[in-house]
Amino acid sequence: MKKTLALLLSLLLLTAVLCGCGSKASSGNYAREYEPAYDDYEYDSYAPAEMAEEAAYGMAVNGAAVPAEAPVPMPDTVDASRENGAKLIYTANLDMETLEFDQAVSDLAALTAELGGYYEQSSVSESGSTRRASYTVRVPAQNYRAFVSQVGELCHLLSLNEYTEDVSEMYYDTAGRLETQRTKLSRLQALLAEAESMEDIITIESAISETEETIDRLSGTLRHYDALVDYSTVDIYLREVKVYEPEPDPTYGARLGTAFVDGLKGFASGLGDILVALAYSWLWLLLIAGIVVLILWLTRKRRAAKKAERAERKAAKQASRAAAAAPAVYSQPAEKDDE
Questions:
Q1: Is the C-alpha dihedral spanning 4, 5, 6, 8 positive or negative?
Q2: What confidence score (pLDDT) does residue 118 get?
Q3: CA 187, CA 52: separation in Å to the nearest integer?
């Protein structure tokens, strides 16, 4: 029995581990969230020595190795960009309420157009007599501060959260890698023009294809950064109210009730995550359930066999005792009749 219980506990522990593997979570800052597979470029492991090695790329053509050249310096355009300023990404979240919903929506659209921005996302919903709107606005970075300041005056501002992310290091390192790859491509194309054997041509063309693919990816990353830097992102949540009511300080009972409700929501959310994890691991659960059923069946069979064996031994013992307790009976020889 103890062994069976230990085995069942081990199986339950294995199920918990599998469920934990099934659940997923994600985190990261704004640039990492929108960055297209930047990790594929191996930024962290990319060192100036490797840039020099790529710039000094040489390949054997017609049996003779092409001499490696000195590393290519950072292009002047990148240096000029460094002097012009850092690459900063500005984002903001605003939560507002208004008594005049239609007017607030119209004023917001007018302000966005006036400052050269546009709606990346917009939605308006109605629940009963209350209307709500959600907007993601992209505005030129030079007008970001003016937009946030003026949009906060259009309605009753409840909260404002601003974030700034400096991506200068990643941006300029990517730009340097891109220039190195372009230089490498030029040298490969020159080698291809001089190549004579088919083997050299195939090798060089393969290297050219890989280099062009890397150039496309690095160029896409720079365009992505430029879009985030040039146009700041402002998320706006607006709701209609009948009257502005200041929020009173919560009482002890309100805080206790809020904590209870939040705890209940957290429990429900955790239970939902567990169910999702179980759904991911249903094959493993089915296999474990089959193993548990087999173990229980074997255990019951073994217990039944032991019980029958004990009953048989008990019956044999009782029969032996009964035989020992019975009196001995001796047979008398038959007497002969007198003649």
A1: positive
A2: 94
A3: 14
Residues whose CB falls within 8 Å of the CB of residue 187, separated by 6 or more in sequence, listed in order: 57, 69
Query: What secondary structure letter does DSSP report for 195?
Result: -
Q: Around Cβ 312, how many Cβ atoms within 10 Å?
A: 10
CA torsion sign for 246, 248, 254, 258 is positive
Q: Which is more confident, 227 or 65?
A: 227
At 257, the amino acid letter reads: G
Give the Cα separation of 263 and 211 in Å (integer): 54
User: For residue 178, what are its two tokens?
Assistant: 């891109």
Whether residue 198 is predicted with pLDDT greater than 70 in this model: the reply is yes
* DSSP E strand stretches across the chain: 60-61, 64-65, 88-98, 118-127, 130-140, 156-166, 231-240
Render the burial of 208-227: b for 16+ CB within 10 Å, e for the rest.
beebeebbebbeebbebbee
Q: What is the pLDDT of residue 318?
A: 80
The alpha carbons of the chain give a radius of gyration, in whole angstroms, of 40
Query: What's the burial of 260, exposed, middle or buried (CB within 10 Å: 0-12/13-18/19+)?
Result: exposed
State the Cα angle at 160 between 158 and 163, rounded to 5°.
165
- Summarised one tens digit per residue, pLDDT across range 124-155 is 998 877 899 999 999 999 999 999 999 988 88
Q: Are 274 and 15 in contact (CB under 8 A)?
A: no
Instruction: Write the DSSP assignment of 250-319 as a string of letters.
Output: PPHHHHHHHHHHHHHHHHHHHHHHHHHHHHHTHHHHHHHHHHHHHHHHHHHHHHHHHHHHHHHHHHHHHH
Return the minimum-mean-pLDDT range out of 164-173, 190-199, 202-211, 317-326. Answer: 317-326
Helix (H) or strand (E) holding 62, with range, is: none
How much is the pTM?
A: 0.48
| Residue range 83-97, pLDDT digits in tens | 457 899 999 999 999
Which is nearest to 167 in space by CA: 24, 278, 34?
Answer: 34
DSSP helix/strand/coil, 109: helix
Cα 267 to Cα 12, 179, 259, 261: the distances in Å are: 21, 53, 12, 10
The tokens of 321 are what?
Answer: 């005792």
